[in-house]
Structures are given as structure tokens and as C-alpha cells.
């Protein structure tokens, strides 16, 4: 069990739990239901299996993710969000909305999911917004 850490404010505590490069993306992928490790790897190919394992363990230790292992051969492991993890989903949805607005305002490329591939959309002209 983690040693309690003294935070200076609630925001710092929240960022300590879901901050970093991959944790919020893991939570985002799990928001709609339970996934196996291989499904997470398929949805997040930019994350190495080792890093994904590390981040999942930290999220589990913090009570955000629930890990369920089935005694089968080969072993089957599933991940889902706990109630605490589900509570942060509206925050991430707001961040996603803000990120979309940011990309549009700056003429950045956005991506759409199409099956298992990402398709680049046209760059938007900031003056058209």
C-alpha cells in the first residue's frame, strides 16, 4: 500500500493520480467498459506493454482501476474503472471538448477513429471558426 502523501491542494492530489502521459488515456479507453490487456495495447499502440503495465498497476494501487484475473490457461486479465475512476470521466470529457476547440482554433490536425485506424482530417482554418 502506498504511503500517504501530503498534498498542498486537491488539484495537486488529482493530478498526482491521473497525471502523466498515459494514465488519462487509459482511463479514457476504459470509460465505456471492461477491456483486456491486449485490447488496451491495440487501442494505444504508442504505449509499450511495459509502460502500460506500470501505469495500470499505479492506477489500480490508487483505486482508479479494478484488475480482475481469471484462473485460466492462458491467464485472462480484465481491467475496468472503479467508482472512483468513473467519477473522473466527466472531467476527461470536458478536457476532450476543450482539446477539440483548441485544435480547431489553432488549425491543428485532428483524428477520427475509423475501425482500428486513425484517419487524419483536413486542417481547419482558424478564421472559419
What does this structure look like?
- The protein is of the alpha+beta class and 129 residues long.
- It has a single domain, classed as Winged helix-like DNA-binding domain superfamily/Winged helix DNA-binding domain (Arc Repressor Mutant, subunit A).
- The strands form 2 sheets. A 3-stranded antiparallel β-sheet has the order 1-3-2. Strands 4-5 form a two-stranded antiparallel ribbon.
- The longest helix is centred in the C-terminal third of the chain and has 23 residues.
- The chain is globular.
Keywords:
about 130 residues, alpha+beta, Arc Repressor Mutant, subunit A, 3-stranded antiparallel sheet, two-stranded antiparallel ribbon, 5 helices, disordered C terminus
Helix content: 40-55%
Q: Which structural class is indicated by helix and strand composition?
A: alpha+beta
Number of helices: 5
- Rg value: 17 Å
What summary fits the major beta sheet?
Answer: 3 strands, antiparallel
Average pLDDT works out at 84
CATH superfamily membership: Winged helix-like DNA-binding domain superfamily/Winged helix DNA-binding domain
**How many structural domains can be distinguished in the coordinates?**
1
Assess the beta-strand content as a share of residues: 15-25%
CATH architectural type:
Orthogonal Bundle
User: Rough shape?
Assistant: globular
List how many beta strands DSSP finds. 5
CATH topology: Arc Repressor Mutant, subunit A
Q: State the order of secondary-structure elements, H for helix, E for strand.
A: HHEHHEEHEE
CATH class: Mainly Alpha
First-to-last CA distance: 49 Å
Poorly predicted tracts of residues: 114-129
Largest sheet strand order: 1-3-2
Amino acid at each position: 500500500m502506498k504511503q500517504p502523501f501530503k498534498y498542498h491542494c486537491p488539484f495537486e492530489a488529482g493530478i498526482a493520480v491521473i497525471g502523466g502521459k498515459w494514465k488519462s488515456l487509459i482511463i479514457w479507453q476504459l470509460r465505456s467498459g471492461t477491456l483486456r490487456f491486449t485490447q488496451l495495447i491495440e487501442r494505444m499502440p504508442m504505449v509499450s506493454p511495459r509502460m502500460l503495465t506500470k501505469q495500470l498497476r499505479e492506477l489500480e494501487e490508487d483505486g482508479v482501476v479494478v484488475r480482475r484475473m481469471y484462473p485460466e490457461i492462458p491467464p485472462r486479465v480484465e481491467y475496468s474503472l472503479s467508482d472512483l475512476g468513473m467519477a473522473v470521466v466527466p472531467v476527461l470529457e470536458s478536457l476532450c471538448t476543450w482539446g477539440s476547440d483548441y485544435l480547431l482554433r489553432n488549425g491543428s490536425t485532428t483524428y477520427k477513429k475509423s475501425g482500428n485506424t486513425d484517419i487524419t482530417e483536413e486542417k481547419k482554418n482558424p478564421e472559419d471558426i
